[in-house]
Amino acid sequence: MAEEKPNAPARAQYEIPRSPSPRPSGVHQVTEFQDPGYTIVGNHLTQHRSLSGLAIGLAAYIQSLPEGAPVDIRTLAKRFPEGRGRIAAALRELEAHGYLERVRRRTDDGRMVTLTLSYNNPAATRARRARESAEEAKRRTAVTPAPVASAPVTRHASRTPTPAPTPSSAPAPASAPAPAPEPPHARPEPPPPPPEPRTRPQHTPAAALLANLRYEDPRLLLSVRDVHRLTPAVAAWLERGASPEAVRNALTTGLPATLRHPAALLTHRLSELLPPPLPAASPADTTRARPAPLQTCDGCDRAFRASTPGRCRDCRPPAAAECLPTGPG
């Protein structure tokens, strides 16, 4: 008979149920109420099969930060023991799967900064945006009827109906004179169909730019009528070589504290700040190579131009000196 050991810990200390479970090994959840300070993270992130453990941990950490906290590569490398290279690779994983988005913006003083957007549920965000876009398109279609639909109704309504001869009517006698033919000018001509509105190629992105101004400032929420009225003016900016980002900055920078008539303010800025048209392109300009796209540096999180992601000029290691062959003597 084994001797009794009174110093053995009780089962209740480890919170193990007495009834044997079908799978006694594995994880056992010990849940406590947390107040304050907790973050709700979805299982779609914590159990993601394509993300690495470092990427999942960085996403959970970024979602727990307050609004406006710095999340650049240098700050994260100071917080965690992993190096900048591994942290940059994990951030690219989160960008590829939609949990992170880094947007480059130009400040009022001309500097390029990186704005990081963290999505706690990318699939739900995409579904909500698609639903809002569909509702906006439905409202736009309901408010603006198609002008072509009224043309057939007007054409048929203006014609004079001609009664068809009935087979029961008696034939006219041979001695009766034949009726005189109706002159061609007596029957009214149908009106021509209304001309279809000409839509320039820049109208679609111009309308989308105006509709998305509400995300820059909630006071710039425009009605469907205002969007249709301001679309040609924005299209004129785009046709003169202005980028959508430049048009957005011109319309949203330096707004007054009290904004009562946003459509009137946008109309004034679009007319007064209209850039001049671009000069005619010379053959040398057409053959000029386009600049490389903007990339985010993996070392300092600064924007620089390169064909592939990597490090900027200041963060790159110095190139090894080339070994030159030396002659005899």
List the helices and strands and how they pair.
Elements: H1 43-46, H2 53-64, H3 73-79, H4 84-96, E1 100-106, E2 112-118, H5 122-143, H6 150-158, H7 203-211, H8 213-216, H9 224-239, H10 244-252, H11 262-272, H12 283-286, E3 294-296, E4 303-305
Helix pairs in contact: 2-4, 7-9, 9-11
Q: What's the total helix number?
A: 12
CATH 2nd-level architecture of the domain at 43-123: Orthogonal Bundle
Compute the separation of the termini in Å. Answer: 93 Å
Helix content: 25-40%
CATH fold-level name of the domain at 43-123: Arc Repressor Mutant, subunit A
Instruction: List the strand order in the largest sheet.
Output: 1-2
DSSP summary, beta strand count:
4
Largest sheet: 2 strands, antiparallel
Instruction: Tell me the Rg in angstroms.
Output: 36 Å
CATH class of the domain at 43-123: Mainly Alpha
Low-confidence stretches: 153-158, 320-324
Strand content: 5-15%
Instruction: Sketch the topology as an H/E string, one letter per element.
Output: HHHHEEHHHHHHHHEE
The CATH superfamily of the domain at 43-123 is Winged helix-like DNA-binding domain superfamily/Winged helix DNA-binding domain
State the oligomer.
Answer: single chain
Decide which structural class fits the backbone: mainly alpha
Mean pLDDT: 78
Shape: extended
Summarize the structure in words.
It is built from 12 helices and 4 strands; from the N terminus they run ααααββααααααααββ. With 329 residues, the chain is mainly α. Among the domains are: 43-123, Orthogonal Bundle (Arc Repressor Mutant, subunit A), CATH 1.10.10.10; 203-254 and 261-272, no CATH class. The protein is extended, with a radius of gyration of 36 Å. It starts with 42 loop residues before the first helix and ends in a 24-residue tail after the last strand.
